[in-house]
Amino acid sequence: MHRTVFLIAAVCIAMPMIATCASDKKIFCYFASWSVYRPGKGNFDISEDIDPFLCTHLVYAFVGLKNNEVNVLDPWGDLPPNYLGGGRNGFGKFNDLRKKNPNLKTLVAIGGWNEGSKQYSSMANNAKYREHFAADAAKFVIKHGFNGMSLDWEYPAQNGGAPEDVVNYIELLKILRIHFNKNKLILSAAVAPTEYSASLSYNISQMVKYLNYVHLMTYDFHTSSEQKTNLHAPLYPGSEEPSNHKQANVQASVKYWLSQGCPKEKLIMGIPTYGRSFTLCDPAKNSIGADACGPGDAGPYTRQPGMLGYNEICKLLHQPGQSWDAKYEYEREFQYASSQSQWISYESFLTVKPKGAFINKFNLGGAMVYSIDTDDFKGTCYGKYSILTDLNKTIRN
Ligand SMILES: *[C@@H]1O[C@H](CO)[C@@H](O)[C@H](O)[C@H]1NC(C)=O
Ligand SMILES: *[C@@H]1O[C@H](CO)[C@@H](O)[C@H](O)[C@H]1NC(C)=O
């Protein structure tokens, strides 16, 4: 036994490019480009705030789809001044981070929840449109200096899509692969994690052939759209949970994707740097499963009811005069806290360690973090980027 362990370690050191060692693990960091408009200490600056050595891949979110071509959603933020409507050159600053770390790769993500599914569905349903989009996508990636693209269509055959999306999605990935291979570009996709959702959208054994990486969005399992408080990204199910909740955790999702033929080295496990919040109906009833009467209050930076960045949460918990009751749920490996009517479940530097250990144990490709701009990037609570730093230590050492 000891001998085997020693041999594997030796192979890792001798052939770091070939062997799958802990240090080969990838960390994909999404950057929410609208974070550059957040106020105060929530304001995120690409050049100043991104540590180019904490992630192996950076993902710029999002661009959109229009007339079967890639559509820049925020020309002022994304493009340089010499473009029509351009200004702040987000793409340029982002890709310039590779000058500081030549091993860093950058991707641009197309889609996201707000884009819906409809346009993607009609583009994928027509061979000519697919071909046009695939050629345009490769051209776009090269023109703006990225290394690849993440297709974040949420989701085929759901949210405004059509049943034939499942088959068309594979055809779309095939043609994208052809165009991306010509220029050695990376192609990944963000996907629905649970069996009940993924089985509506994907032919997993087929799709993984054409993708370099699969970003498993293992978070938002429970949000304030449900009327009970619950943990939004627990690693494990709870023994007391009802059977219809047993898929709503990281472990069940990872196991499902592996069982359907996703190669473990392509599977990238999602980790949220944010929490999901609820407003309790009765502040005295604040356990998991307590009645919730709506989303929690919006935060000062993210300004969106029902979610808070970790940088907002850790500040709240630290604020003098506020009595937050913070609990660690050991069985499911996640945290939650409440104060008066507010209830938040959240990832932290504590919960990320068992998740990192899980990635190592299953020898997955790595982690995907959504999104770097809501980790504590200023270091106001426990040092800069406390979630990402501990993730990096756990899976890349
Ligand atoms: C996936 O596609 C293959 C090849 O077309 C087909 O044989 C298989 O039945 C499909 N699987 C699912 C789950 O749809
Ligand atoms: C992340 O881990 C890698 C591998 O151990 C290390 O080289 C790098 O310096 C770490 N990044 C930071 C910012 O600590």
UniProtKB/TrEMBL annotation:
<keyword id="KW-0732">Signal</keyword>
<dbReference type="InterPro" id="IPR017853">
    <property type="entry name" value="GH"/>
</dbReference>
<dbReference type="GO" id="GO:0005975">
    <property type="term" value="P:carbohydrate metabolic process"/>
</dbReference>
<dbReference type="InterPro" id="IPR001223">
    <property type="entry name" value="Glyco_hydro18_cat"/>
</dbReference>
<dbReference type="Pfam" id="PF00704">
    <property type="entry name" value="Glyco_hydro_18"/>
</dbReference>
<dbReference type="InterPro" id="IPR029070">
    <property type="entry name" value="Chitinase_insertion_sf"/>
</dbReference>
<dbReference type="InterPro" id="IPR011583">
    <property type="entry name" value="Chitinase_II/V-like_cat"/>
</dbReference>
<keyword id="KW-1015">Disulfide bond</keyword>
<feature type="domain" description="GH18">
    <location>
        <begin position="25"/>
        <end position="397"/>
    </location>
</feature>
<protein>
    <recommendedName>
        <fullName>GH18 domain-containing protein</fullName>
    </recommendedName>
</protein>
<dbReference type="GO" id="GO:0004568">
    <property type="term" value="F:chitinase activity"/>
</dbReference>
<dbReference type="GO" id="GO:0008061">
    <property type="term" value="F:chitin binding"/>
</dbReference>
<feature type="signal peptide">
    <location>
        <begin position="1"/>
        <end position="21"/>
    </location>
</feature>
<dbReference type="GO" id="GO:0005576">
    <property type="term" value="C:extracellular region"/>
</dbReference>
<dbReference type="InterPro" id="IPR050314">
    <property type="entry name" value="Glycosyl_Hydrlase_18"/>
</dbReference>
<dbReference type="GO" id="GO:0006032">
    <property type="term" value="P:chitin catabolic process"/>
</dbReference>
